[in-house]
Write a structure and sequence with these properties.
Elements (H helix, E strand, L loop, with lengths): L6 H16 L8 H6 L1 E2 L2 E2 L11 H10 L2 E6 L2 E6 L1 H4 L2
Helix pairs in contact: 1-3
C-alpha cells in the first residue's frame, strides 16, 4: 500500500495520468509542461510560477512509488508506475 498524497502531489499525479491518457505512446511531460498545468490546451491542474516548484513533488511521487524515473542519455523522464498503466 502506498502512502497518501498531499493536495499538490495529487495535482501533479493527476497531470501525469491525464497526460498519459491523451498521449499513451508519447514522450514524458517536461517540468515546463507541468508548470503550465495544461494537457492539449485543457487546464488539468493549477499553473505554477516556475519549474522549480514542480520537481520536489515529482521527486516525492517517485519516492512514494506513484511514478517511475528513467534516464535517457543522463536526462530524466518519468512514467507512471506499472500498476497505474492498467487503470
Amino acid at each position: 500500500m502506498r502512502h497518501p498524497l498531499t493536495k499538490p502531489q495529487k495535482e501533479i499525479y493527476d497531470y501525469f495520468c491525464e497526460f498519459y491518457k491523451r498521449y499513451p505512446e508519447h514522450r514524458s511531460p517536461t517540468l515546463k509542461d507541468m508548470a503550465t498545468g495544461q494537457v492539449d490546451g485543457v487546464q488539468v491542474c493549477k499553473e505554477r510560477a516556475s519549474r522549480q516548484s514542480i520537481y520536489p513533488h515529482v521527486r516525492t511521487l517517485i519516492d512514494k512509488g506513484y511514478v517511475k524515473e528513467n534516464f535517457y542519455r543522463n536526462k530524466p523522464y518519468w512514467t507512471l508506475a506499472e500498476d497505474d498503466h492498467e487503470k
